[in-house]
Write a structure and sequence with these properties.
Layout lengths: L1 E6 L5 E12 L4 E9 H5 L1 E12 L9 E11 L11 H16 L2
Antiparallel strand pairs: 1-2, 2-3, 3-4, 4-5
């Protein structure tokens, strides 16, 4: 289990307890669940993320890669925020990963 900071709608920074569910090296994917934190206590019964890395055309700088990030969740009520509101946080994570991998 791990702790990650995230952003709740409205810009509040918070922490979430996550569990790594699966690493599939052949499919180049990682799946994890959010187990605890404000997000789970307030809005969702379940919240699972999957990140897949899909290689595309080879090129001058090693080629192009597409990253597919999907979220599957069950809301506690219809008043829970749409998970799309977390897209900015997911994008900032993807950009940080890109910077790290580009410098390797």
């Amino acid at each position: 289990m791990d702790f990650h900071d995230g952003i709740e709608p409205g810009g509040k920074i918070e922490f979430a307890k996550t569990k790594l569910e699966e690493i599939d090296e052949e499919k180049r994917s990682v799946t994890y669940s959010i187990l605890d934190g404000e997000l789970m206590r307030k809005y969702y019964k379940t919240f699972k993320d999957k990140i897949e890395v899909i290689p595309k055309a080879k090129g001058e700088n090693g080629g192009t890669t597409i990253v597919k990030w999907s979220v599957v969740c069950e809301q506690k009520s219809e008043h829970a925020p749409d998970p799309k509101l977390y897209i900015d946080f997911l994008l900032s994570c993807a950009k940080a990963i890109d910077v790290h991998l580009s410098s390797a």
